[in-house]
Amino acid sequence: MTEKTAAMLRFLLLTSLAALVLAELEPQPRFLEDIAEERVVGGTVARPNSWPWQISLQYKSGSSFYHTCGGTLIRRGWVMTAAHCVDRSRTWRVVLGEHNINSHEGTEQYMSVSRVYLHPNWNSNNVAGGWDIALLRLSSEASLNNNVQLGALPPSGQVLPHNNPCYITGWGRTQTGGQISAQLKQASLPVVDHKTCTSYGWWGSTVKDSMVCAGGGSESGCQGDSGGPLNCSVNGKWVVHGVTSFVSSSGCNAYRRPTVFTRASAYISWMNNVSIQ
């Protein structure tokens, strides 16, 4: 082997190694619906209506409606969800007081959506760009009862500490490649602080200040659908601190790739401005 050939081989090897490192430094995010075979790891069936602000967002196809995302009832006539859930034109409805999406249990309230408000900075071509939040104006106001309640939102700008206890809820799969659960499920996803989540070998610069990371443990994964709430225990009360946004393209619950949520406290003023219209 000539000196020139050896030098070329060394160059190619170093280039390949650099590409591998770069790939590791830039994990690719994906929305939860895009990896239907790997949506959920762990979780248990929730007690019926124990998360009474959780809603099922459904779209019309033919004469039927089908569940696609979760969401949170934040005012009697308003629902908070992910922008990527509703950034296309469809006929939507929201089901409140839902537990089993395959049966009518008598606790449900069915509401059509009169208007969708996407965050003006949302860009559907940039998964990790942020701004993955939307508000849905319901055609009528919810009747609040034991099965339907408003989700509490955090004060503007509040950031929770590392390992703060939280639960994600939704109608996801019970195991990789398994069946979608008809019943609402819940899974423990403690907060991963911003410094950890954006560090080398974790999500890095993919995660922005306006996001919150949670989970990453073997038992929780990304339980539940996009748009649903991250319910966090703060001073003995449940507060909705996140809107489920994306996971790693290598699958839910990938090592050091906790589920990423839109941080609700970063959008309080925007939501207030929209909901007074």
UniProtKB/TrEMBL annotation:
Residue limits of the Peptidase S1 domain?
40-276
**Where does the UniProt annotation place the signal sequence?**
1-23
Which cofactors are reported in the record for this sequence? Ca(2+)
Superkingdom per UniProt: Eukaryota
Record localization: Secreted
User: What GO biological process, any one, is recorded here?
Assistant: proteolysis
Show the CDD domains listed in the entry.
Tryp_SPc
Give the keywords, sorted: Calcium, Disulfide bond, Hydrolase, Metal-binding, Protease, Secreted, Serine protease, Signal
Enumerate the GO terms in the molecular function aspect.
metal ion binding; serine-type endopeptidase activity
Extract the SUPFAM superfamilies matched here: Trypsin-like serine proteases (SSF50494)
Which PROSITE patterns does this entry report, sorted A to Z? TRYPSIN_DOM, TRYPSIN_HIS, TRYPSIN_SER
Catalysis: reaction(s) = Hydrolysis of proteins, including elastin. Preferential cleavage: Ala-|-Xaa
* Key word Metal-binding present: yes
Which InterPro entries does its entry note?
Answer: Peptidase_S1_Elastase_sf, Peptidase_S1_PA, Peptidase_S1_PA_chymotrypsin, Peptidase_S1A, Trypsin_dom, TRYPSIN_HIS, TRYPSIN_SER
Record-given protein name? pancreatic elastase
Q: What is the species listed in this Swiss-Prot or TrEMBL entry?
A: Gouania willdenowi
**What lineage is on file?**
Eukaryota, Metazoa, Chordata, Craniata, Vertebrata
